[in-house]
Fold this sequence. Notes:
The chain is an alpha+beta fold. It has one domain. Helix content is 17%, strand content 35%. It has five helices and twelve strands. The strands form three sheets. A five-stranded antiparallel β-sheet has the order 2-11-12-1-3. Strands 4, 5, 6, 9 and 10 form a five-stranded antiparallel β-sheet that branches. A hairpin with a 3-residue loop joins strand 5 and strand 6 (197-213). The longest helix has 13 residues, at 3-15. It is elongated, with a radius of gyration of 31 Å.
Amino acid sequence: MSFRKVWIVATLLLLLPGCALFATNENKSAQVSPGFPWSRKTVAEEVDTTPTLKMARLEASIVSRPVNDARVRQYVWEELDESGLMSPDVRQHLNDRGFRVGVAGSSTPWALQSLARESVIAHRPDNAQPLSDSVNTTSVGPSFSLMQGGHSLVEVQSQLDGRTLPLKQLPELATTRDHTGLRCVVELSVKELNDDWVLLNVLPQIHTGAATTRLSITGASEQLPVRQNVISLYEHQFTVKLLAGEIAVIGRNESSEWNLGRIFFQPEAGSSGSEKLLMIRMVGVDRLKGKSDPSFRLDAYEQ
C-alpha cells in the first residue's frame, strides 16, 4: 500500500468520530447525537423549579390551674431549660417584669405532659370520643401554621375588670384611661424558618377599650378593622428558637410586686385564684409547592 493510501485511510478514521476523540472534561456533559456507537449521550438532571413555601406548624394552649397546684408553680420549671434561650440580661429583664420562659426538649417532662393532656381534654367537644392511652401525649392543643413574616394572636386573659386591678402600678398602663374589656394577648410571629427549626418572636400586648372601627394602614391600602386599643409592649418582646418536637413554656415569675407577668398569668389574688401557663409546641415544617398553569395567558386578564 502506497503512502498516499495510508494517509487517506488515517484521515478518514479521524474524521468519522469527529471531536469525540478529543473531548475534554468541560464538554463531556454535552449531549452528542447517538449516530455512532462510540458517541456519548448524557441526560441532564431535571431541576425542580417549582416555587416552595415553608410553613411552621405549631400547637398552642393555655393551661389554667389553681395556684396551689405544684405542677404549675414548681415541677414544670424544674425540667425546663431557662438559661440557654437568651442572654442573661434579657432573661433578667423578663424576670423583673414578671415573665418566665423555658423550653422542654423532644423528651417532654412528665409534669408538662400531664398539664398538656388535661388541656387537650378540656378543649375537646362534649360529643368527641374519649382519648385512649395510645394518643400522642406530647400534643398541647390546636394546631396552626405560620409562614416567615406571618403572625398569630393568642389570648391569655380576657375581659378583665380593670377597676379591681392596681393598673396604676404598671408604668406601661399608667397613661391608659379606658381599662374596660382588658385582654392580655401574645403575638407570635416567625422571624426565621429553617428545615427543622423556627425562631419565634413573642410580643406581649394589652388590648383595652370597646371594640370599634379604627383606621389602620396595611401596605399601600387603608383598612377599617373592628378592634380595641392595642398597647404593644415592645420593650418586653423576646425570641425563642424551637426544634421540631420542642415546647416553649411562658408563665409567671413569682414576685411580691404587681407586674406585667402577674396580670398576664395570675391577675386574681389569694389562694382561690388560678395561674396560667402558655405552651407552644413546634410540630414541624410543612412545604407547600406551587403549581404552574400551562394555559395561563397574561393578555387574558387585560381589559
